[in-house]
Design brief:
Helix content: 25-40%
Structural class: alpha/beta
Largest sheet: 6 strands, mixed
Shape: elongated
Mean pLDDT: 93
Strand order of the largest sheet: 5-4-3-2-1-14
Number of helices: 18
Radius of gyration: 26 Å
Number of strands: 18
Low-confidence stretches: none
């Protein structure tokens, strides 16, 4: 007789125990109604993930433990007690630290608890600092419908040894893996290769369920999937949305099967997935923090245009307040492009010239050059923050990763905001994302949201006559190549020169990046979409006299 297992890809919120429990109950009811015997949910779905130092608070630990027990009883009261529900939560303290656990709920009780052993302590993860590891010999094998189902959590399958190796001779019929794996460009293929290797190691299918949703600067992309004992893909959930994926383990020990009519979701390009990650990250940051609208400055340039399009896709164009704040250096085509963009996305469009305010400052202060340029950016920030404070929308910063890397932004000016959707997006990817979004709209028979002139014109801050970004920076194609080596691959000056970059460009870029660390510390949160994002991934001292030399 076949055993039917549902992978429930859900979006939970950190700290909202009752809402997360309600989501578990609802999706379990749907899964059982669809015929599931076992329901598998993601890592720490009950508490939200990552909980960071909230996990160290005794009151939260006690509340999570009590909510888990209550949830088990609620599932039974819902008539779902016969189902085996495996979900992630916060465990009781071990060695004065809490644990990251997978709990098995059945018959109204917590039947078993598995503790994550391999605790990641790199990149965005600080789990070794927060959690106590489980004993590698303490494995949990769930008996359901005459099948033996091993349980593991995320990093436990990324590292050799530990509980997965301990289960190699346990005659498993499947391995259930609970994950809170954040999105980054191109990561999906890595996950599937890893699952393939573990399936072959254990000689059984691997069922991989992943969180979906935004949490501060992380975006969990879902993309849950199932591979058979040979490591071949059998079923998968789409990315960036909640989903319920149903598979069956046949009674004869064959490969998992899917219901009639099921088809694998179409492959999405890397740039399409990056766009979807940014949209989801913004949407969840807005909603989970209680905002209804966003506000941003519309300059007519590509960065603000892309952010506005993302915001419209995330929360609806009617909830986007776009403000044009022309100065005496703003070109007519930039003003026209800003107005055109607002029309295309249906934004609440306003025009507030900053000339009189800037002149008032200049009448009282004798400043010229860069200080005068920065004054314009800071006056714009004052206007935007006034709207945010008085009307309540979240202010979005529109800068990109290339600008942030080299300090090409004004502190307390265009760097002001509560969230920065393009913080981890290089300028070359900004153009790619804008073109992709417009082409997707055209393919759907819709008007492209971004004026093509915003994409095609040379980028400029328009803070002085005839200003171009290329006056101060290398062309973005070259700049981004150097930044990819220096920031994402941690190459030093000598390695960059060996890669073929000219000494003058390397010297300029490294100097700009190194001296801008203090600015990056003050920049708003933004969604991580690359392997190395500023913030959690790359942490350098501000006071730092080391400089790369040949």
């Amino acid at each position: 007789m076949e055993l039917r297992i549902a992978l429930a890809q859900v979006n939970s919120a950190v700290g909202d125990l009752d809402a997360n429990a309600a989501a578990v109950r609802a999706v379990t009811a749907r899964a059982v109604a669809a015929g599931a015997d076992v329901v598998l949910l993601p890592e720490m779905v009950l508490t939200g993930y990552p909980v960071e130092d909230l996990a160290l608070r005794g009151s939260f630990q006690r509340a999570a433990a009590a909510r888990l027990e209550t949830l088990a009883a609620e599932l039974a009261a819902d008539g779902l007690g016969a189902a085996t529900v495996v979900l992630g939560s916060l465990g009781t303290a071990r060695a004065e630290r809490p644990t990251n656990v997978a709990a098995v709920l059945r018959g109204g009780a917590v039947e078993a608890v598995y503790t994550k052993h391999h605790l990641p302590n790199y990149g965005v993860f600080d789990e070794y600092r927060i959690f106590a590891p489980g004993d590698p010999h303490d494995v949990v094998v769930v008996e359901a419908g005459g099948r033996r189902l091993g349980v593991a959590i995320c990093e436990d399958i990324w590292v050799d040894g530990g509980p997965v190796a301990e289960m190699a001779d346990d005659g498993l019929d499947a391995l259930l893996v609970l994950n809170g794996s954040p999105y980054e460009f191109g990561k999906g293929a890595v996950r599937r290769r890893l699952a393939r290797d573990r399936a072959r190691q254990l000689g059984c299918p691997v069922l991989y369920v992943n969180l979906v949703g935004g949490q501060d600067d992380l975006v969990f992309d879902g993309h849950s999937f199932v591979v058979d004992a040979a490591g071949d893909l059998v079923a998968a959930s789409p990315g960036f949305v909640e989903d319920l994926l149903l598979v069956a383990l046949p009674g004869d020990g064959g490969a998992p099967t899917t219901p009639a009519g099921y088809a694998l979701p179409p492959e999405r390009s890397d740039i399409a997935q990056m766009y979807e990650a940014i949209v989801l990250g913004l949407r969840d940051y807005v909603r989970k923090n209680g905002f209804e609208k966003v506000v941003l400055g519309l300059s007519g340039g590509i960065d603000s245009a892309l952010v506005a399009a993302v915001a419209a896709d995330a929360i609806g164009g009617e909830n986007v307040v776009g403000i044009s704040m022309p100065s005496r250096y703003s070109s007519d085509h930039s003003r026209d492009d800003a107005a055109d963009l607002a029309r295309r996305i249906g934004a609440d469009y306003r025009v507030r010239p900053i000339g009189p305010m800037v002149e008032a400052f200049l009448a009282e202060m004798d400043i010229t050059g860069v200080a005068e340029e920065n004054l314009q950016a800071r006056v714009r920030a004052v206007v935007l923050m006034a709207v945010s404070n008085s009307e309540g929308p979240l202010l979005l910063a529109t800068g990109n990763k290339s600008e942030l890397a080299v300090g090409y932004s004004t502190v307390y000016g265009d760097a002001a905001g509560g969230y920065a959707p393009l913080k981890d997006v290089l300028k070359t990817h900004v153009w790619e994302l804008a073109r992709w979004r417009n082409e997707a709209a055209a393919a759907a028979g819709e008007e492209p949201p971004i004026p093509w002139s915003s994409i095609e014109k040379a980028p400029s801050a328009e803070l002085r006559p005839d200003q171009k970004d290329s006056d101060s920076l290398p062309d973005y194609d070259l700049l981004d190549d150097v930044l990819e080596g220096y920031v994402e691959r941690s190459l030093g000056r000598e390695e960059l020169l060996d890669s073929g970059f000219d000494p003058e460009t390397v010297e300029l870029v490294l100097r700009l990046v190194d001296r801008a660390e203090w600015k990056r510390r003050q920049y708003p949160l933004g969604p991580k979409v690359t392997a190395v994002a500023f913030g959690r991934d790359r942490r350098l001292p501000v006071t730092n006299r080391w400089r790369e030399r040949l």
